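User: Before I run my own analysis I want an independent prediction to cross-check against. Here's the chain; please return only the structure tokens and, at the end, one sentence I can use as a sanity check.
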Amino acid sequence: MVRAALRRRGLRWDGQRDPTPLLVPRARAARERHEALLRHYSYRLVLRDVLKHRHELGPRDLVRYASRAVAGRYLRFLVEAGLVVRLGPGRYRLGDARISSFGGTLEWYVAHVLACEFGCAATWGLRIPHAAHGGDYDVLACVEGEVVYVETKSAPPRQIDQSEVGAFLDRVDTLRPDLALFLVDTQLRMKDKLVPMFAAEVDRRRLGWDARRLEREIWRVGPEVYLLNTDPDIVGNLGVCLAAHFRGRGIAVSPASSG
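Assistant: Structure tokens:
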């Protein structure tokens, strides 16, 4: 479905992906457990620390954002799943040293959530040859005859610059999706830095869009363009944006809210 949707937009994709390996277990049972744990922000933060210390790590390297007990449970699972290898007492390393970033794994997980929680046909890490502005699309999904594009950011807001917001809007303009999401995997506020960055980009392009808060740190920054973090829950926040979009296109028989 995604391939056909791209073709209808004049974009040819033959399955090319970012070649970087994912931090995902091979065994089915371990993968299912990994998928369940990825819903927890603390687990995703521990995985980032595993990658930061991928050549050699110990339990003390994983307690910045999780208690010692929780980090210990996560570490035991990662060893059992084959993602982390035990070198000796209290010493471990990443199983596949080629993995240096959490970005691809986050893309894979968001596509998994869209597929399993919301019934979308979804894929991740697309590399579309000859597309304008590089053709790199983190997550694309099709549902109810519409195309959903999600740009995922595993870095905190302080590491996101203005050019990345501009590149996102460039890719939106190339793809012309029905719904576009800029998802930042953080529990920090969007209002402090990223909402102003979108406002600056909107002003530079003379788009005339106004940012409006949906709830918490979920913002509608343009017509069917949303900015969101993952507090309190990545699945729930994606659901808020999908619901806002699909309810907005449906038949309403009650008066519009004045708010």
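Sanity check: Helices lie at 2-8, 28-37, 41-52, 68-80, 103-118, 162-175, 194-205, 234-249.
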